[in-house]
Model the fold of this input.
Amino acid sequence: MLCYAISRLAIPSVKEVRKMRDADRIRMHGREKYVVPARQGKAKRFSIRAGDVVRDLRMNGRTPAVCSALRSREFQQSNNLQLVETTGPKSGQSTTVTYTYEFVETGQPSAPREDPWLRLRGALKDIFAELGGGEAYLRGERENFYAADPSAATESK
Done:
């Protein structure tokens, strides 16, 4: 029974596929027909032509939806892909548009972001050293925070 339940989760029925939004159907088709075979074949790059997806899914007249789904961030992130090239007309809305993807390594972030606060760490180290260290600097500032003559401090206001 458990095996049946798992298989029902993995493979949607025909009725469930018909209820899916077009974009979900397009992304699922792209994964099954292009992404999975390319990954199993250990390809570094692969391409998807929008016209092939339109024909396979019988979505005549829905080319803009196919193009949008194939270049969407959701499709790329869910399959660990990076869109590296788009060929076709400038409109990007044609059956001749071809998208070329590369697989992105999941174990390593693409570009580690440096924390701006960590970059400041140690920036004033030399200046504090000249003043006798950070603690000595702060002690001196606290001692000189109020004017020596309290009446002089009120007159200047």
Remarks:
- Residues 22-40 form the longest helix (19 residues).
- The radius of gyration is 30 Å.
